[in-house]
Amino acid sequence: MGGGLAASALVAALRRRGSGAEITVLSAEALLPYDRPPLSKELFTRTEPAWLRDEFALPDDAADVSLGTSAVELTSGGVVTADGQLWEADEIVLATGVAPIAPWPGVHTLHTWEDAVGLRSALESAGSVAIIGAGWLGLELASVARERGLEVTLVDATPDPLGTVLPHAAAARIGQWVADTGIAFHGGAPVAEVNGRDVVTTAGTTVDADVIVAALGSRPQTKWLPAELLTRCGHVAAHTNGRVREGLWAIGDCAESDGTTHPHWNDAVAAAERCAAALTGSEPPPRRAPHGFSEMFRRDVQLLGTPSPTADVEFDQTVRGWVAHLSLAGELRAVLAVDSPREVAKARKTLVT
Predict the structure, then answer these.
(1) Which terminal Cβ of the chain has fewer Cβ within 10 Å, N or C?
(2) What predicted TM-score, i.e. pTM, was given to this entire model?
């Protein structure tokens, strides 16, 4: 179940590992699997989805694919879709992903190609945009919108951009990029209401903008599943190899293992490989630390490991950028590398997975 990166990578991994099983992919979206990171990074330049290619694409004739097919019920040996059809299978893999948090009607979100088309159309005739949420997505959108010439305002409940992920010393450096680019940032107070063109924070700040975008994160698309399978936050509780129970698996953004979710692109691919190994009884891939990447303000940003806002920080300058080493109780837990890809390769050898 699911038609995104995790599902596509799983099919490809199963075939590479010699599986001859009959595979059916049920996708709620009406499009074949595509890459989601370019939706924000290439918002104004991409004219079609970035279709998954090479080892991440669905191999030709590797699976029967049913697009625009949403699940409504999980049975003991199958899935019932919105059209009433029962799809039976020996093994069911849940890779339904997430949906953006959208608390206010009329506010744009960005998760699908359709979202990107609508947001781009709105911004092309706008002079200003307010982005609620200064996480990875919010910062990427702010970067491309400002480069496009729009007046951009970022609003976030935390005092710093990426404040829920990074300690202040590291987040403040990213905040300086925001300021240097001419983007207004209102942090430290959540949004109380959105009223027409106005975003109003609990501190009483009002931001007026032609377009408003919510970049507040996401929730797993699991409401149709039995409650006993879900964690408090709605993810499917699974083993690190994806196993939930006999005949049922969960991978990608909708899954949680060892109390942790890993929402990054590389994490979805790694989860698919581990699940394929378990399903085929073959050797699992080596465990790697979570790895996320971004492009913003003309900088390459990579985050390796599991960061914490309470981590201790040590900075090192590199040839083109800098690296922040994030530690807890003296143990290195994450590395934030800016324009420093070689440092990421070095960190892989020492980080806790």
Answers:
(1) C
(2) 0.93
Mind giving me the DSSP string for 186-235? EESS-EEEEETTEEEETTS-EEE-SEEEE---EEES-TTS-GGGB-TTSP
In the structure, how many helices (H) and strands (E) does the chain have?
7, 26
**Does 3.50.50.60 match the CATH number of domain 5-97+221-280?**
yes
For 236, other C-beta atoms within 10 Å of its C-beta total 24
153-204 per-position pLDDT tens digit? 999 999 999 999 999 999 999 999 999 999 999 999 999 999 999 999 999 9
The predicted-structure confidence for 83-135, as pLDDT tens digits, reads as follows 999 999 999 999 999 999 999 999 999 999 999 999 999 999 999 999 999 99
Residues 6+ apart with CB under 8 A from 125: none
Strands (E), 64-132: 64-67, 71-74, 78-81, 86-88, 92-94, 98-100, 128-132
pLDDT tens digit sequence for 288-304 = 888 889 999 999 999 99
Distance, CA of 232 to CA of 47 (rounded, Å): 39
Which residues pair with residue 299 across a beta bridge?
296
Confidence band, pLDDT 50/70/90 cuts, at residue 352: low
State whether the Cα torsion 140-146-147-149 is positive or negative.
positive
5-97+221-280 and 101-217 in the same fold: yes
Q: Tell me: domain 101-217, CATH 3.30.70.270, correct?
A: no
Residue boundaries of the structural domains of the chain: 5-97+221-280, 101-217, 298-350
Angstrom distance (rounded) from CA 177 to CA 66: 44
